[in-house]
Specification:
Elements lengths: L1 E3 L2 E6 L5 H13 L4 E7 L6 H11 L1 E8 L4 H16 L3 E5 L5 E5 L2 E5 L14 E6 L2 E6 L18 E4 L18 E4 L2 H7 L2 E2 L11
Parallel strand pairs: 2-3, 3-4, 4-5, 9-10, 10-11, 11-12
Antiparallel strand pairs: 1-2, 6-7, 7-8, 8-9
Length: 208
């Protein structure tokens, strides 16, 4: 979840469940933000359909950004996602895939890494960089460190978060960034690289 100047953006880097998305949206209410300006899906799950319906039934959502489908299965899901969003009069946009793409939200540029896979999993890897006026924040989903294609992505980040969603974690991160702050949502990953383990919610003020 990203908030800037009273506007809220929710970025799904998880499994697309109703519980996960509604929890993220409810966090906006705690900051007195009643609308979701932009909901970004980093990848496509069939369960996103019911999750988006649930969110739109309970909150005003202005815009949903969906990755361009890259096969027949994703195309079918994307069609249902669009129909669901349009039922609630939500604007829908598509993110160019599989190449790297950038999204602007207020003063923040959100860069979504190229869609890539590792040989042992059908789940895409997830990588995000948040470009701020005074620095960068890097988010890496699970097992991204197994793909050398991520070398150089997010270099120079001031804060790095190693997430848990994606291909099952089977190794310690091979990509360890020398950032001022490093967090991990997986306890074993945190221990292996000396990161701070996030056992719950992490709130970081990025822009004054």
């Amino acid at each position: 979840m990203l908030t800037v100047g009273g506007h809220g953006c929710v970025i799904d880097v998880g499994d697309g469940t109703q519980t996960a998305l509604n929890l993220a949206v409810s966090e906006l209410s705690e900051q007195c933000i009643t609308e979701v300006d932009t909901l970004i899906l980093t990848h496509i799950h069939r369960r996103h359909i019911s999750a988006i319906r649930s969110v739109c039934e309970n909150r005003m959502v202005r815009r949903i950004l969906i990755p361009e489908p890259t096969d027949d299965s994703e195309n079918a899901i994307a069609t249902d996602l669009v129909e669901t969003a349009e039922h609630f009069s939500v604007e829908v946009g598509f993110l160019p895939r599989p190449e790297e793409t950038a999204i602007s939200f207020s003063d923040v540029t959100i860069q979504l890494a190229e869609k890539r896979y590792i040989d042992r999993s059908v789940h895409p890897l997830i990588g995000l960089v948040f470009g701020l006026p005074d620095g960068y924040v890097l988010y890496l989903g699970s097992s991204t460190w197994e793909d050398i294609g991520y070398l150089g992505f997010g270099d120079g980040a001031d804060l790095v978060i190693y997430g848990s969603h994606g291909p099952v974690i089977k190794s310690a991160p091979g990509l360890v960034f020398e950032a001022t702050h490093i967090y991990a949502t997986n306890e074993l990953v945190a221990r292996s690289i000396g990161a701070v383990w996030i056992d719950g919610r992490l709130t970081v003020e990025l822009i004054e």
